[in-house]
Specification:
Elements lengths: L4 H9 L1 H20 L6 H13 L4 H8 L3 H13 L3 E5 L6 E5 L1 H25 L1 H18 L5
Antiparallel strand pairs: 1-2
Helix pairs in contact: 2-6, 3-5
């Protein structure tokens, strides 16, 4: 069967496919560096966001990180279990706020050398122009939504 030109174009040029593949590459490199610490990059991302933004509601955190609440909840359970994040009462009885604990902040500081090494590896692999363009795009999106959490 011959593949129609429009289908070939979709396979060659799809931004979504390439972005997902790039995400898997970056996540794989980061997770490999974090493996000895028993965490994944998604959890570190959430912990960083809480440390930089807290106290913050889970709803605001999920919105800032563009995560669905169930994904945030699964990763947050691990951060709470490790004692890196704590909850405190919110404005009403049904809400709560998330705050990074001193242990959570210390853990992030401990990870900094691994983060720096991984950043360099990714910039070398992807190229500084692409990394700068991605950062600028994400910063533009965050500025449209309000102050970033991460």
């Amino acid at each position: 069967m011959s593949v129609p030109p429009k289908v070939r174009q979709m396979a060659r040029e799809c931004v979504a496919v390439r972005t997902r593949l790039l995400n898997r590459l970056v996540t794989g490199v980061c997770d490999a560096g974090l493996r000895p610490f028993g965490v994944r990059v998604a959890q570190v991302n959430i912990l960083c966001a809480v440390a930089n933004s807290g106290p913050i509601t889970p709803t605001d955190l999920a919105a800032a990180l563009v995560l669905d609440k169930s994904t945030l909840s699964r990763d947050m359970a691990k951060l709470l279990e490790k004692g890196w994040v704590e909850t405190q009462p919110g404005e009403d009885a049904r809400s709560h706020l998330l705050t990074a604990t001193p242990a959570g902040v210390a853990f992030l500081e401990q990870l900094h050398p691994i983060w720096a090494k991984t950043q360099k590896r990714l910039i070398d692999r992807l190229g500084p122009v692409l990394v700068a363009a991605m950062s600028e795009t994400v910063n533009d999106i965050w500025s449209e939504q309000g102050e970033p959490a991460a």
